[in-house]
Automatic annotation (TrEMBL):
<dbReference type="GO" id="GO:0001727">
    <property type="term" value="F:lipid kinase activity"/>
</dbReference>
<protein>
    <recommendedName>
        <fullName>DAGKc domain-containing protein</fullName>
    </recommendedName>
</protein>
<dbReference type="Pfam" id="PF25382">
    <property type="entry name" value="PH_CERK"/>
</dbReference>
<feature type="region of interest" description="Disordered">
    <location>
        <begin position="371"/>
        <end position="392"/>
    </location>
</feature>
<dbReference type="Pfam" id="PF19280">
    <property type="entry name" value="CERK_C"/>
</dbReference>
<dbReference type="InterPro" id="IPR017438">
    <property type="entry name" value="ATP-NAD_kinase_N"/>
</dbReference>
<dbReference type="Pfam" id="PF00781">
    <property type="entry name" value="DAGK_cat"/>
</dbReference>
<dbReference type="GO" id="GO:0016020">
    <property type="term" value="C:membrane"/>
</dbReference>
<dbReference type="InterPro" id="IPR057465">
    <property type="entry name" value="CERK_PH"/>
</dbReference>
<feature type="domain" description="DAGKc">
    <location>
        <begin position="161"/>
        <end position="310"/>
    </location>
</feature>
<feature type="compositionally biased region" description="Basic residues">
    <location>
        <begin position="379"/>
        <end position="389"/>
    </location>
</feature>
<dbReference type="GO" id="GO:0006665">
    <property type="term" value="P:sphingolipid metabolic process"/>
</dbReference>
<dbReference type="InterPro" id="IPR016064">
    <property type="entry name" value="NAD/diacylglycerol_kinase_sf"/>
</dbReference>
<dbReference type="InterPro" id="IPR001206">
    <property type="entry name" value="Diacylglycerol_kinase_cat_dom"/>
</dbReference>
<dbReference type="InterPro" id="IPR045363">
    <property type="entry name" value="CERK_C"/>
</dbReference>
<dbReference type="InterPro" id="IPR050187">
    <property type="entry name" value="Lipid_Phosphate_FormReg"/>
</dbReference>
Length: 540
């Protein structure tokens, strides 16, 4: 084996020795100048390891680990072989852990014969999937391995975005109650491998995560992670942002100008719809989500405040009023049903009893150039739309089947391009999507388009706007005089309506939604950088 082959530290900018060491004279090792292309950064270490049963010449620099097999010198002195062997390269930014590899007996916890070093890298697989991959660098020498281990660790410690300590929330009641299993079987082993400390709360009731977060010392952690579905992510995101306001001494009122969340939020999908996980990772895959967290891939994301005229209701990313909210309310009433069955039942029943909501929508448009926007607001001349000047509030009154207000694209398996493909994760705007009254058949056609490549908004009864603020005031009757309207508002103000805020059911009447650009960092990547999902809809 290679136990005797010691490493050597390469002093900066020193030329490779003209005459190789005795052992190297017997082997054909590509000279350093050949290993490093012109302009390549300085090597930190160079040594010999056995990799994949071949002796390899290994070079470590701050950004890369590269190796090529050592080819024995041919008796005929043919040197061409040395240049035919393939060099392998690992980018250090893809490495998330390094361990000393030892042979141990069953039950042995410490000690054991040193076999070498194992390097764990994050591998990009098909369809946005990430997986972990181990590379074994074998060498029996303790000194050799410890030196390499120290250098590799030092490089990994230099990646500032990577968390060292996480506060984890697991909702054991999500979807088919698999969140705890997902966490302990798939997520926790990877966090341990990456030497990330965790403080885990398995929630016992709805609102448990929120109350823990309110009392939590966020400075003790580098990030918060939640394992569950969209409703749970929403609770944790709200808790994290609420705690940030409390810590900053902000009053939690209607006019709140919120401060940013101090640490990022990671989402491990274990729910039924998992919109945030699809939007951030392009896939529902716990290992992919964990590796984004471990690698410290950070994505600033816009968030909204949802308020009544007197108080802040919550922080969130998206909301639905009308069909989307009534479907959720019905599903929540049937919590005893299995989750998929409950959601299908609620969807079909709400569709069968299709109703409009009479309300007034006021919104403040955002004037930004939208190259690929599907907007049709400027083209349309709605009967009941009063247009103001460019930066004034606009108003629409009428009977609406559904109103969606979304600060993020909201990708999911039923809508691979997103429920709101015309917004971005952090462009400082929200998509307001208004579905006016229409026949059930036309409404179903519109819903079916979410699953296809066709534009779901190209119907005469659908209007979309790019906005920064929206006020939704339910039940404003047209044709009433000002006094009658005031009386009606007074009675309906107390009457609450279901709202679907990030998959969580909230009861409210008048709601004011404001977008706050890049208010929170989430672990993940920008949807625009992901491969498009191939998921299709099977619900209609
Ligand atoms: N231990 C618990 N028991 C009951 N409810 C809980 C518990 N912990 C959290 N919750 C609440 O359960 C609600 C739903 O959770 P979650 O979103 O994880 O599951 P889901 O509804 O199956 O998934 P999805 O929202 O993707 O459809 C959340 O509002 C959360 O606050």
């Amino acid at each position: 084996m290679l136990g005797a082959a010691g490493p050597f530290l390469l002093p900066h900018s020193r030329a490779p020795p003209e005459r190789a060491a005795p052992e190297e004279r017997r082997r054909k090792v590509a000279p350093l100048a050949a290993v490093l292309p012109v302009g390549e950064e300085e090597p930190l270490l160079r040594g010999i390891f056995e990799i994949g049963k071949r002796s390899c010449d290994v070079v470590l620099s701050a950004r890369r680990l590269r190796w090529s097999p050592i080819v024995p010198e041919s008796p005929a002195g043919d040197s061409s072989m040395a240049f035919r062997v393939k060099e392998e390269i690992i980018e250090m930014k893809d490495v998330f852990s390094v361990k000393l590899k030892r042979r141990r007996f069953v039950g042995q916890k410490k000690g054991g014969t040193l076999l070498g070093i194992t390097i764990f890298k994050c591998l990009h697989k098909e369809e946005n999937k990430l997986t972990d991959y181990a590379i074994h660098l074998n060498n029996f020498s303790e000194d050799h391995c410890h030196l390499w281990f120290r250098h590799l660790k030092e490089i990994l410690n230099g990646f500032q975005n990577r968390p060292k300590s996480l506060k984890v929330f697991v909702n054991p009641s999500s979807h088919k109650r698999e969140a705890s299993h997902i966490y302990y079987e798939q997520v926790s082993p990877l966090l341990k491998l990456a030497d990330i400390k965790t403080d885990v709360t398995v929630t016992e009731y709805e609102g448990h995560a929120l109350s823990v977060l309110k009392e939590c010392e966020l400075q003790a952690f580098d990030g918060v992670v939640c394992v569950g579905g969209d409703g749970f992510v929403s609770e944790v995101a709200h808790g994290l942002l609420l705690k940030a306001q409390i810590d900053a001494g902000k009053g939690i009122d209607y006019e709140l100008t919120p401060v940013r969340a101090p640490i990022p939020l990671g989402v491990i999908p274990a729910g039924t719809t998992n919109i945030l996980a699809y939007t951030l990772y392009g896939i529902k895959h716990a290992v992919t989500a964990t590796l984004h967290i471990v690698m410290g891939h950070i994505q600033p994301v816009d968030a909204c405040t949802f308020s009544t005229p007197s108080r802040l209701l919550r922080f969130g990313f998206s909301a639905m009023f009308g069909f989307g909210a009534r479907t959720l309310a019905l599903a929540e009433k049937h919590r005893w049903m299995p989750s998929n069955q409950r959601k299908d039942f609620a969807f079909i029943k709400t569709l069968a009893d299709l109703k409009t909501e009479k309300c007034e929508l006021s919104f403040l448009p955002l004037q930004i150039p939208q190259e690929d926007s599907h907007e049709n607001d400027r083209k349309k001349k709605g009967k009941n739309k009063k247009k103001g000047s460019k930066d004034k509030w606009h108003k629409i009154q009428g009977d609406f089947l559904n109103v969606s207000i979304m600060a993020i694209p909201c990708l999911c398996s039923m809508a691979p391009r997103g429920l709101a493909p015309n917004t971005r994760l952090n462009n400082g705007s929200m998509a307001l999507i208004v579905v006016q009254n229409t026949s059930r058949t036309e409404f179903i056609k519109h819903l079916k388009r979410y699953a296809s490549a066709k534009n779901q908004f190209s119907f005469p009864f659908v209007e979309t706007y790019t906005v920064q603020e929206v006020k939704v005031q339910p039940r404003i009757k047209s044709g009433l005089d000002a006094k009658e309207n005031m009386d009606l508002n007074a009675t309906t103000a107390e009457e609450s309506h279901p709202w679907n805020i990030d998959g969580d059911l909230v009861e409210a009447s008048e709601v004011h939604v404001r977008v706050h650009p890049q208010l929170i960092n989430l672990y993940g990547v920008n949807t625009d950088d992901l491969e498009s999902s191939k998921a299709t809809c099977n619900c209609i």
